[in-house]
Amino acid sequence: MSGETEHSIEARIADADEFEPPASFVEQANVTDPEIYDDFESEWPECWEQAADLLDWDTEYDTVLDDSNPPFFEWFTGGELNASYNALDRHLDERGDEAAIEWIGEPTDEANRTYTYRELHREVNEFAAALRDLGVGEDDVVTMYMPMVPELPVAMLACARIGAPHSVVFAGFSADALATRMNSADSEYLVTCDGYYRRGDALEHKAKADDGLGGVDHDVTGVVVDRLGDAYDHPMRDGGNGGATGSDHDYDALVDDHAGAEVDPVSRDAEDMLFLMYTSGTTGQPKGVKHTTGGYLSWVTWTSQAVLDVKPEDTYWCSADIGWITGHSYIVYGPLSLGTTTVMYEGTPDYPEKDRMWDIVEEYETTQLYTAPTAIRAFMKWGERYPAEHDLSSLRLLGTVGEPINPRAWKWYYEHVGDESCPVVDTWWQTETGGMMITTLPGVKNMKPGAAGPPLPGMDVNVVDAVGDEVDAGEAGYLTVDKPWPGMLRTLYQNDERYVQEYWAEYSDTDSDDPDDWTYFPEDGAKIDDDGYITVLGRVDDVINVSGHRLGTMEIESAIVGVEGVAEAAVVGGNHPVKGEAVHAYVITEDDAEGGSELRGKIIEGVEDAIGPIARPESVVFTPELPKTRSGKIMRRLLEDIANGDDLGNTSTLRNPGIVEDIQAAVDAGG
Ligand code: 6R9
Fold first, then answer.
1. What ligand 1 atom has the least distance to the C-alpha of 324?
2. What is the ipTM of this complex?
C-alpha cells in the first residue's frame, strides 16, 4: 500500500461494496473449502452429523432428523450426552491448566479472575452438588437473575451437569419481569447476586430480586453470590417474602461446604431441555423458548468453529451479556465446548474511559471480537483515536449480531478495529434459532457490508412475498426458513399451540404431516441479491430492537396503561443513530386531563419498573386520540413516520385523519 495516502485508503473502503477475505485469515481458517455449500445440500440432513461429531456422546444417536411430526422436529434422537461434560471434563487432559474463562470486573483497581478448565470444572462440580442438596432434581427449572459474574456460567453448567434446565433472566430486567418468568416456568430455585458495578457505581441487585420474589406465587429457594462485599450489606431471606416464601443461601458458603465434591454428569437425552430463554413477541406475554441438549449444543459448537473460527488456543471475546441468547450460545456453550478461552467483561465500554474495550483486547491479546452494531456506532461517535491508541494486532476476526449494521459502521469496524486484516461476519439469527443462520463463512465467502450474507451451508432460507412466492432480487419481502436445523427451538414452554401459531402458521399447511409443507417464519423483513446475499431489514411484527435488545410493543404499552391517569397508549420504534431503534410512546390521558411532565415521569418510571431501563421511552407524546383505521386498528406506521420525521403520506383511510397533524404539532411543540 506504499504511496497511498490515508485519505485515499478511506475513500477506497468507502466506495467498495464487496471485500475479499484477507489472505492471512484464509490461510489458517477452520473452513476454507467452497464445496461445503454443495456438499451440505446434497447430503442434507446427514450433513449435520459433522456438527454432532464435534461433541462427545454417551450414547450414539440413531437418527439425525426425525421429521415425522412437523413442526415438532427432533434431532439426533436416541443419542445421550451431557453439556457440562462437553464444555469441561473432556478438555481436562489436554487443557486442564489453560484458561477457560478470563473474567474482567469493571473497576480497574480490582484483580481479574482467571478460571482454568480444572478450576471451572471443580467449582461447577461443587455447586452442582450444592444444588442437589438444596433439592434441585433433574428437569427442575432453576432461574438465574445475575449480572456478568463468573458464577453465572458456573451455575448454568452446574445445572446442565445435573440435568436441571436453567432460565436466565437478564439482570437489567425489572423485578416484575423476573416474577413473570419464574411463575411461567414454575421455577422454585433462584440463583442471584448482591449487585454489580456499573460506570463506577455499586448497583444493589438483591433488593430488586427480592421485590420480584414478592410477585412469585410459590416458594423459592435462593442462592446469593456476594459480588460487592462490604460495598453492600445485602438482605438475605429467611422464611417469608410476600408471595414467595423461602430462604436464601450464600453461594460461597455452599461451595465451601461441598469442597472437592464430584458429581457425575447426568446422561441427557438429545431432546431433553438444556434451557429456557424468555423473549419478546407480539403479545404482552414473553415466550419461553425451549432449547435442547443435543441439537442446540451441536449447532452452537459447529457455528463457533465454522463462523467465529474458534480454536482452542484462542482468546475469544463476545461482549454480549449472558442474560441474552448471544451470551448463552457464544460466551458459554459454543466456546467452552471447543475448549477455548472465553472472555467475560462485567462493565460498560466507556468506563473508566472510552477505550476500555481496546484496552482489554490489547491486554488479553484477544483473537476474536463479537459485538453489536449499537456498540460499533457508539465507538464511531467517540472517534477512531480510541482504538488507534492500542495495539489490536492480536485480532483475527470480527463479528456483529443483534440488528442490521449499516455499511458505514461496518466499514469503520473493518478499518479502525480490524485494520483491514480481519474478516467481519455479520451474523443473523434469533433466540429461537439457537445460533447463527445467515452469515458469510469467513474463510470462503466475500463480504458485502450491509448484507449479512448467504444462508449457512445446509440452510434453506428464502425471501418471499405475502403468499410465500419468492421475490425477485432486490425486492423487499419476508424471510422464511424451509428446512429445520439442529439448533432450532423445539416449542414454547408448555405451549405447543402458541409455538405453531407464532412461527409456522403464516406460511405452512398446518394440517399436513409432510415436513415439506412446513415453513418457519422469523418475522423479519429482508431482500436478497443476485449472489444470494441477504440483507435483513428488521422486524415485521410489533417488536422494537433497541441496542440489539428485543422489546415487545405490547409489553411496553401495557406497562404504560398501568400508570394512573393513562387511558390508552401506542408505542413504536423510531430510528436512532446509536441504538438502532428507540421507543416512542403516544399516550391518551384519562378524562382528557392534560399530560404534563409529572405524568411523563410516571410513565417512564412505570416502563422501567415493568421491564427495565432499556425499554425507557425516548419520547412521550400526549394526544387526545391515536390514528386508527376504520376497523379500529392503530396505524403504527404513521406514528413511526412521525417519530422519524418522515413524510406522512396518505392518511385518508384513517377514521380520524386530522389527528395526525395534531400529533405532529404536539411533537413540534415539544410534546
Ligand atoms: C441473536 C439475537 C433477534 C432479532 C432478529 C432480527 C435482529 C439479529 C441481526 C438482526 C439484522 C443481523 N437481528 N441479528 N438483524 N442483522 N445480523 O439477536 O437474538 O434477541 O432474539 O433478536 O434481532 O430482527 O429477528 P434476539
1. 20
2. 1.00
